[in-house]
Amino acid sequence: MVSISVIIPTRNRASLVRVAVESVLQQTWKNLEVIVVIDGPDLDTEAVLKQITDPRLLVIPLLHSGGAPKARNTGVQAAQGEWVAFLDDDDEWHPSKLDIQLQLIQTLSCPYPIAACRMTVKTPRGEFIVPRRFPERGEPISNYLFLRPDFIQGDGFFLTSMLLTRRQLLLDVPFQEGLKMCQDLDWLLRAMQVQGTELHFAEASLGTWNLDEDRPRIGTSGRWTTLFEWIQSCQQRNLVTPEAYAAFLMTQVNSLASTSRDWQGLRTILVAAWTKGKASFKATPC
After folding, report:
1. Confidence (pTM)
2. Exposed, middle or buried: residue 255 (CB in 10 Å: 0-12, 13-18, 19+)?
3. For residues 60 and 38, what is the distance between their CA atoms, to the nearest angstrom?
């Protein structure tokens, strides 16, 4: 029986997704399957993937595009493994990624461990490693993700390509289909509400996040209003603390509104941060 199912959502990235698939097939942990879900008609990607003869590869082409969350959920439904990991089509893993994460999981006793890892972020301007720190015991996950020591750089970080967890958790808490931005963060905030779920990080950087600022990724484009509506929904669902809610508004949402020079939007953001959250001029991690 396959122990790990790796799910890669993709569309119109034929050359990139092949590199991602090969980085999974080259893992030192061999008992796995790779499920590539093609998010809508894409004959070029289908043709490239047909050239890979490894029997562990399964390709699922969707008739219509539904976005990355639907593609991931489709992959989870088809998965045969007890454990599921995700990889974005323009990212890569180091060969020992899954092996090290499974070793980490074996040290844990919680029913639903979420194993993550550091990633090397590669941009046209240079490279750096995230996250800079891991969550503290008892620290609300929203505080870890959103509180910042300044308005430029934060310490907490989570990316879908880091993730390894039980398939059952992903069946119980699927990705939110139709969500345009923050799909990984939305999933993590909801998953951490499930009793017995814990987030743990491997110390090493086990993959490369190829961040080309000019290249769109599936389901990540949007205006500041999209982010604003999302964090509002998180606040209404009690997924974020008042401090984290205000910090997200004053950094992430505020940054997009400033870029678009939407001055009325900036006022809306600041009012929400001060009236519905616990805003401060310096949001410091717990």
Report:
1. 0.90
2. middle
3. 6
Q: Is a pLDDT exceeding 70 seen at residue 165?
A: yes
- In the chain, CATH 3.90.550.10 covers 4-210
Q: How confident is the model at residue 280 (pLDDT cuts 50, 70, 90)?
A: low
Whether 218 has a pLDDT exceeding 80, the answer reads no
The CATH homologous superfamily for domain 4-210 is Spore Coat Polysaccharide Biosynthesis Protein SpsA; Chain A (3.90.550.10)
3-state secondary structure 130-195: ECCCCCCCCCCHHHHHHCCCCCCCCCCCCCHHHCEEEHHHHHHCCCCCCCCCCHHHHHHHHHCCCC
Q: How far apart are CA 24 and CA 11, in angstroms?
A: 18
User: Which residues lie closer than 8 Å to 182 by C-beta, 6 or more apart?
Assistant: 227, 230
Tokens of 269: 């953001």
Q: What is the mean pLDDT of residues 91-96?
A: 97
- Show the CA angle centred on residue 75, arms to residues 206 and 101, nearest 5°: 25
Taking 3-state DSSP, the helix, strand and coil percentages for the chain, each rounded to the nearest 5, stand at: 40, 20, 40
Average pLDDT over residues 87-109: 96
Q: Which of 119, 147, 140, 123 is nearest to 131 (CA)?
A: 119
221 has pLDDT over 60: no
Phi/psi for 157 (5° steps) reads: -165, 145
The structure tokens 């006793």 sit at 109
Query: If residue 264 lies in a helix (H) or strand (E), which one and from where to where?
Result: helix 263-276
For residues 33-38, average pLDDT: 98
Task: Write down the mean pLDDT value for the chain.
Answer: 90
